[in-house]
Amino acid sequence: MSSSPFKETPHIKPNGAEIAETILLPGDPLRAKFIAETYLENPVQFNEVRGMLGYTGTYKGKKISVMGTGMGVPSIGIYSWELINVFGVKNLIRIGSAGALQDNLNLYDIVFGMGASTNSNYASQFNLPGQYAVTASYELLEKAKKTADEKGQKVHIGNILTSDTFYNADKSAAGKWKDMGVLCIEMEAAALYLNAAQAGVNALCILTISDHIFRAEETTSEERQTSFTKMMEIALELA
Prior knowledge:
The protein is an alpha/beta fold. Helices cover 29% and strands 28% of the residues. The protein has a single domain (22-236), classed as Nucleoside phosphorylase domain (Rossmann fold), CATH 3.40.50. The longest helix is centred in the first third of the chain and has 13 residues, at 73-85. The two termini are 13 Å apart.
């Protein structure tokens, strides 16, 4: 058990329920609910503060938790910091959606974020004497790739962009990131990776392409909530 039944924060109040050392972190709390109800045995809800649903159960005999994080760097920054530093979580796997930048990426493709470029200022709090290369945990990345291979699931691995802006006034920005080989755009991974690195724990971002920035292609909110099962099933194996 990673969490004391007596610990709580302003944002996470388990009321005696356990939080496992490995947790899946979708942005959408309803996706967390879907995963708990679809995949976990004997799920117990450990959070509902601000509607950010969290559950702990077992998957193939291993204890695992899942919890929503909301949208953007500030939101996942809060939740991941508390999960790591208050509740003792050791492995944090973001599972989310992303907008593709590269031509060889299509709807429903899976991306592992090996690195996370960002236009966020989140790293400034650490007062580092230079620019920090924000990267995933190799331990989780290697295990996720092995799991994908065993499932016969093709994945893309590389640099992603964590953006603070969903509606960017600079219309040329996406093209510049594309030219640098960045695979896709999401809004949370860099903060998760930074918090994990500072605390010496593991983090990985697994994404499903929900839309393409340069093509008129996108999925619906309902599809994003319940249909990204291949990504979920890879993440669940990391417990």
